[in-house]
């Protein structure tokens, strides 16, 4: 059954891959974004199926630059409302089987869809915004300096969006559970992300090289990929690296959060800090590592986890991300509490002492890995649309 689907996103995130997968399954998909059409085409999505709010994209990038370089506050109210109003003018011109939109920029669109009658699917890529705010407020106190976290304005806006949406899509069990007791839990569905495994699967030679490094007793290579930020557990990453300096090699790959640069400068004697890399080059980053660490404080999913797993890396990650949904604790990785650098240190020391077991874990992951592809994500969304359409038809039949 073919569905007519609108995908509405301020930027890219994972939606270009998701939209391509839905299109490949035969659905009538149209993408509404602030990327220009030519830029979307570079990601393999047909430009004739794109409606672009490119002036918003230019403004968003300009304010991001000003925020990073000159510390000019981002006018989030202006940017988010303007995109929401643009979407509200364009999407309701047609009737859709599903409108996938993102939290924070969708309040105006959700209001318009109530009049249009098209079902709204609100994607929340992180945990419930109030849970996220509380976690990051605690981390801010722990860091002793301001960090990026949701404003009071954004919290109120997103909670209004939760109330107005027909369905709330989360990406992990952790994120879904943060909606428990909020009154919105009946709207919540979980649809984990996919991964293009062809970009990250290691060759047999690379896997064997990793096994031999581990078994030969050389320093284990500890890899982190992601934004080097307090939200991603930088305080704990720093403590892990300081404690194990000299025993292990550490490499952190990704962009640097402005507020974290002083701490990162202190770490340069213990850690190799690598700037953000294009996704096409990340395979080389994962091939370098022996184990992957991700002590994040809060993540809706974290795509780097599936990339690292596809690359055959044992993962040490916290409960507050998508890792518990696919890692078998103490078999293909380890799930640890947040803000527990000591537990990460203990586990890495165990890896150092138990080289054969660690090498066997690498082999187990490589042999047992079952990729969750973008087509799997699209298939799950397709099934959810069909189920919702069936329920709606049934309800209408009863009323008549």
Task: Write a structural description.
With 400 residues, the chain is of the alpha/beta class. The chain folds into 2 domains: 217 residues, Glycogen Phosphorylase B (Rossmann fold); 172 residues, 3-Layer(aba) Sandwich (Rossmann fold), CATH 3.40.50. The chain contains 16 helices and 13 strands. The strands form 2 sheets. A 7-stranded parallel sheet has the order 3-2-1-4-5-6-7. β6, α8 and β7 form a beta-alpha-beta unit. The longest helix has 26 residues. The chain is globular and about 65 Å long. The C terminus is likely disordered.
Topology diagram in text:
Elements lengths: L3 E6 L5 H10 L3 E6 L3 H5 L8 E3 L1 H17 L5 H15 L7 E5 L4 H10 L3 E4 L5 H15 L8 H13 L2 E4 L2 H5 L10 E3 L13 H12 L4 E6 L8 H11 L3 E6 L7 H7 L4 E3 L7 H7 L2 E4 L8 H8 L4 E4 L14 E4 L4 H13 L1 H14 L5 H26 L1
Parallel strand pairs: 1-2, 1-4, 2-3, 4-5, 5-6, 6-7, 8-9, 8-11, 9-10, 11-12, 12-13
Helix pairs in contact: 1-16, 4-5, 5-7, 9-15, 10-14
Write down the oligomeric state: single chain
In the CATH hierarchy, the architecture of the largest domain is: 3-Layer(aba) Sandwich
- C-alpha end-to-end distance: 25 Å
Structural class: alpha/beta
Instruction: Give the domain tally.
Output: 2
CATH class wording of the largest domain: Alpha Beta
Q: Write the CATH homologous superfamily of the largest domain.
A: Glycogen Phosphorylase B
Task: Please count the beta strands (DSSP E, at least 2 residues each).
Answer: 13
- Strand sequence of the main sheet, in spatial order? 3-2-1-4-5-6-7
Roughly what fraction of the amino acids lie in strands?
Answer: 5-15%
């Amino acid at each position: 059954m073919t569905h007519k689907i609108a995908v509405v996103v301020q930027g890219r995130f994972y939606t270009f891959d998701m939209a391509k997968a839905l299109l490949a399954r035969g659905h009538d998909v149209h993408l509404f974004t602030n990327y220009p059409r030519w830029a979307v085409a570079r990601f393999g999505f047909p430009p004739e199926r794109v409606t672009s709010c490119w002036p918003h994209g230019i403004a968003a990038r300009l304010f991001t630059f000003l925020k990073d370089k000159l510390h000019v506050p981002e006018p989030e109210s202006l940017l988010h409302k303007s995109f929401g109003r643009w979407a509200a003018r364009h999407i309701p011109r047609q009737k859709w089987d599903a409108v996938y939109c993102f939290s924070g920029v969708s309040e105006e669109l959700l209001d318009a869809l109530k009049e249009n009658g098209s079902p709204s699917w609100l994607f929340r890529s992180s945990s419930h915004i109030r849970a996220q705010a509380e976690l990051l407020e605690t981390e801010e106190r722990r860091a002793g300096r301001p960090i990026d976290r949701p404003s009071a304005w954004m919290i109120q806006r997103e909670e209004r969006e939760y109330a107005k949406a027909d369905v709330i899509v989360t990406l992990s069990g952790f994120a879904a559970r943060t909606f428990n007791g909020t009154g919105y839990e009946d709207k919540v569905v979980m649809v984990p992300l996919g991964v293009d495994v062809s970009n990250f699967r290691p060759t047999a030679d690379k896997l064997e090289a990793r096994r031999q490094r581990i078994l030969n007793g050389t320093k284990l290579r500890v890899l982190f990929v992601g934004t080097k930020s307090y939200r991603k557990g930088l305080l704990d990453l720093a403590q892990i690296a300081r404690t194990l300096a000299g025993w292990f090699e550490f490499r952190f790959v990704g962009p640097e959060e402005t507020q974290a640069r002083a701490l990162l400068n202190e770490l340069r004697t213990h850690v190799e800090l690598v700037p953000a890399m294009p996704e096409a080059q990340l395979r080389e980053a994962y091939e370098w590592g022996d184990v992957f660490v991700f002590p994040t404080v809060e993540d809706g999913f974290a795509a780097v986890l599936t990339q690292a797993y596809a690359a055959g890396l044992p993962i040490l990650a916290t409960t507050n991300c998508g890792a518990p949904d696919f890692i078998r604790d103490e078999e293909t990785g380890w799930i640890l509490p947040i803000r527990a650098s000591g537990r990460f240190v203990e586990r890495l020391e165990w890896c150092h002492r138990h080289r054969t077991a660690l090498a066997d874990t690498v082999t187990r992951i490589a042999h047992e890995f079952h990729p969750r592809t973008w087509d799997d994500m699209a298939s799950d969304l397709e099934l959810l649309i069909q189920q919702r359409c069936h329920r709606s038809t049934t309800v209408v039949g009863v009323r008549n």
